[in-house]
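Take a record:
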Amino acid sequence: LDADNYETDPCLKEIRRAENYSWMDIVTIHKDKLPNYEEKIKTFYEEHLHLDDEIRYILEGSGYFDVRDEDDKWIRISMEKGDMITLPAGIYHRFTLDENNYVKAMRLFVGEPVWTAYNRPADDFPARKQYMKFLADEA
C-alpha cells in the first residue's frame, strides 16, 4: 500500500470496498499528539480482545502488535509504514510503540466503530468462542 498517498491509493480503495470498511479515522500515538498519552499507552498494552475485527493501517512510524499462538505464547508482529493488519474479533492482543515512540495509523471498521476492549479473561464472549472454533477447525 502507498502510505504517502493513502487518500488516493487505488489498492486501499479496493480493499475498503471488498472488505466493506465503510468507516475510518486517523490516530496519532505520540506524547505530544494523543490526549492522556501515558494512560492510553498502558491501556493499549493491556491484553484484551474486541467483539469486532481490529483493522490498522500504518501511515507513519512503527510499533508492535502482540498476539498469542496455539500454546498461549506471545508472537510479536512488527508494523511499519505501509503495513496493514486485521486482527479477528475474539483474538487476545496488545499494542505498543517501539523505540521511536510514534505511530500514525488509520483505523478501519465495518459500519459504526466500536472501541470497547475487554481485558483478559473474556472467554465467554461469542466472538472469543467463534475465534477459538475457527482455530480448532483450522488445526
About this structure: The chain is about 25% helix and 35% strand. The domain at 10-138 is CATH 2.60.120.10 (Jelly Rolls). The two ends are 31 Å apart (CA to CA).
